[in-house]
Amino acid sequence: MSKLYIVPTPIGNLEDMTFRAIKVLKEVDLILAEDTRTSGKLLKHFEIATHMHSHHMHNEHKTVENLVKRLQAGETIALISDAGTPAISDPGFLLTRACVENGIDVECLPGATAFVPALVNSGLPNDKFVFEGFLPDKKGRQTRFLALQEEYRTMIFYVSPHKLNKTLAEFVQYFGADRPVSVSRELSKLHEETIRGTAEEVLKHFEAKPAKGEIVVVVGGKSLK
C-alpha cells in the first residue's frame, strides 16, 4: 500500500536512531536522501540495503511529480535528511504537500530535531515559542528583525558558525544587550555545549572563542512587563 514516510535521523549521535526508523527504512521500496553520500554512511551502519535517490532543495521542484506517480502506482517511499526531521529547515514540505493534495498517506515518525533539546535546555520559557529557522541572508533580514522586536514568545534560530557573531550583534542591536540568549552547539555529539547569558555576554564569549559545529540559538521574547 502506497505511503510516504517522513523519517528523522540522528543529529549527531547514531544511538538516537529509533528501532522503528530502521525497520521502515529496511522495508520501503525507495529512500529519498538529501545527500546520498552522507546517508550512505548511516544506512551502512544499520545494514540497510534499500535503494536511495537524491532529493534536495535544488531538485525537489523537478522530482515531486514523478515521485507522486510512483506512490500512486503503489510504492512506499521514505524521506530522510542529512540530520534531524525532514521539512524542518530541510527539504520535505513540497513532497508532503503534493502527497496530501493527491490523497496519498503520509506518516511522520517521531525522532531527532535539533531545536527541541536546545529549547528545553535553554532555561527560557517554552510554554509558547516560535521557530524561525534560518534568517534571510540579506534581502528581508532587517525587516524580519524589526518584526521580531515585538515578539513576546521565545524565539528559536538555526545559525551557521561563521554567521553566529554577526547574528548575536544583531540581537544586541534589535533586541537589546540584556536580552537572554542561549546558544547550543554540537547537540548529542562529543563536544556538545550550551552557553547562556545576555545577548552581550554571549557575543563576547564567542568573539573570544569562535564557535564551530551545528548551532541552535534560543532567544527570550520581549518582556510583557
UniProtKB/TrEMBL annotation:
Reaction(s) this enzyme catalyzes, per UniProt: cytidine(1402) in 16S rRNA + S-adenosyl-L-methionine = 2'-O-methylcytidine(1402) in 16S rRNA + S-adenosyl-L-homocysteine + H(+)
InterPro entries: 4pyrrol_Mease (IPR000878), 4pyrrol_Methylase_sf (IPR035996), 4pyrrole_Mease_sub1 (IPR014777), 4pyrrole_Mease_sub2 (IPR014776), rRNA_ssu_MeTfrase_I (IPR008189), SAM_MeTrfase_RsmI_CS (IPR018063)
Signal sequence, start to end: none
Domain Tetrapyrrole methylase: 3-202
Keywords, sorted A to Z: Cytoplasm, Methyltransferase, rRNA processing, S-adenosyl-L-methionine, Transferase
Compartment list: Cytoplasm
UniProt main location, coarse: cytoplasm
GO CC aspect terms: cytoplasm
CDD domains associated with the record: RsmI
GO molecular function, one term: rRNA (cytosine-2'-O-)-methyltransferase activity
Entries under NCBIfam families matching the protein: 16S rRNA (cytidine(1402)-2'-O)-methyltransferase
Family: Belongs to the methyltransferase superfamily. RsmI family.
PANTHER family reported in the protein's UniProt record: RIBOSOMAL RNA SMALL SUBUNIT METHYLTRANSFERASE I
Role: Catalyzes the 2'-O-methylation of the ribose of cytidine 1402 (C1402) in 16S rRNA.
The protein's name: Ribosomal RNA small subunit methyltransferase I
Organism classification: Bacteria, Pseudomonadati, Bacteroidota, Flavobacteriia, Flavobacteriales
